[in-house]
Amino acid sequence: MIANVGAQLGLAYAFVEREIALSKRYWAWEIVWLVYGIVTSLSVAYIALGAPAITGGGLAQADVSRFVLYLLVGTITWRFLGLIFEQMGETIAWERWEGTIEYTFMAPVPRLTHLAGMCGATLVRALGFSVAILAAVALFVPVDLSHANVASALALLATGAVAFIGLAIGSAVFPLLWTEKGLQMAYIVQAVVLLVSGVYYETTILPAWMQVLSFISPATYVIRGMRAALLDGADLAAVWPNLWPALLVGAVSIPLGLRIFLWAERHAKRTGRLKRSG
Amino acid sequence: MAIQARDVTQSELKMREPTVALAATGVRKEFRSARVLPGGGSSVRAVDDVSLEVWRGEIYGLLGANGSGKSTLIRLFSTLLTPDAGQVRVFGRDIGRDELAVKRMINRVSVEASFFKKLSAMENLVYAGRLYGVPPEISRPKIRSILGRLGIAQARLNEPLEKLSRGMQQKVAIARAFLTAPMLLLLDEPTTGLDIRSKREVQTFVRDLRDEHDATILLTTHDLDEAARLADRIGILHQGRLVAEGTPAELAARHGGGTLEDVFMTATGRRLDEADDTSGETGA
Q1: What pLDDT does B215 receive?
Q2: pTM assigned to the model
Q3: Alpha carbons B14 and A107: distance in angstroms, whole number
Q4: How many contacts, defined by CB atoms under 8 Å, are there between A and B?
């Protein structure tokens, strides 16, 4: 049993090592994404800093500081969750583009191990990017984390990561089912989640039908909880109302995402879609 | 080219090594195009009721024109496709029910090299080794040895693969397959697009490794010379059906003597180069 777990971890590590090697070889693109992330987050922070001028000067300095942090928590948390969604969602599309998809699916690696390895690599990259963006933004914009409850924030991030991994695994099957347009569909799902999850605003301002979507998006709860933890110092008990729905989505989305992935793999093998060129 | 006198009869092969490495029975695969309108769409039967056996230690050559179903058959054997009908067993294991066990026993070289282009040969092969449970401390010296035999200089091992020539990439693909010591190796037109010298090096390597490592090899090709040079037995695939099978000598005897080209023409009704020209690329 332990030997088998060790063997599976070894197999999963193959994907982590591969992704790290690819990041090194595509270093110029990694810098592009990092700079893009920093610039986007900084731009959002400057919107908050410029709020007094935009609104005619009716905001006190304390309100501006809170607004800056409010937007930064949203944008950086979304960056973290979005990276998980993107990278996991591109599991199939990337390998199809490289031409390696048949070799990965032919290898004697259980699909669960394959996806666990990809999750490991994704989490390493998403965490690295998010920390780097936060550090870079803090150099330019005053970030007041004096009231932050770090434990609550970490618990929410971990829960959000799990929930997004499940959603991303489910979305990764689009390129298996629709070889030409599957990835575009995954990006549309991601964009809709961004719109309805209150990344830059409260979800209460959304039209009623969008609020239905925000209700089922785990990002809604994670971002709301992160704001409570980092702006108001909410402890675990206080963020629980936001933690449990995200946990629930994770508990449902991971097994469901896996089941969908395995079904899509069988379908692709039946219909001949598991090809490098589609 | 005349069929050379590597006259190993079927009975001699069976006596030498009776284990069946690959057994396909009544395998059928059809592809349907998308239906845009109700009642629309079409279907192509890429593999039509194919039954064959490949014995342990044998090199079995599957000869056919473009679009004859060779690659589909290889993809069925390598678990990338599921058959619509029929059964495939690898060393007695059903590829559907014992998929993971079968995957551990096989590897494949496809006509495209299929690598992470920015990674080096060493990085790609170490990764491939890990997927088959071969740790880097074992795979690295093995990679150097195999690629050395295939004529790739050590200095090129750490260059991104996209900087290597097509022939070199294909040699790395062959090294990837042999690295995992597969019991059954599926070679899907491994020398297509290679220059004469590289082609000969690869063919020699395939023969040597079969002799040294007791591997069983199923080779698809539309190169008559390659089939005659490498294969102990040859199957001719035409429009998805296996229309002839036997050792080169048996095929020659059965189809009136002469060259493998004559055999192909008698079995399929057309020359191989004509069949290639008219079949086009169907992806089968």
Answers
A1: 85
A2: 0.85
A3: 30
A4: 92
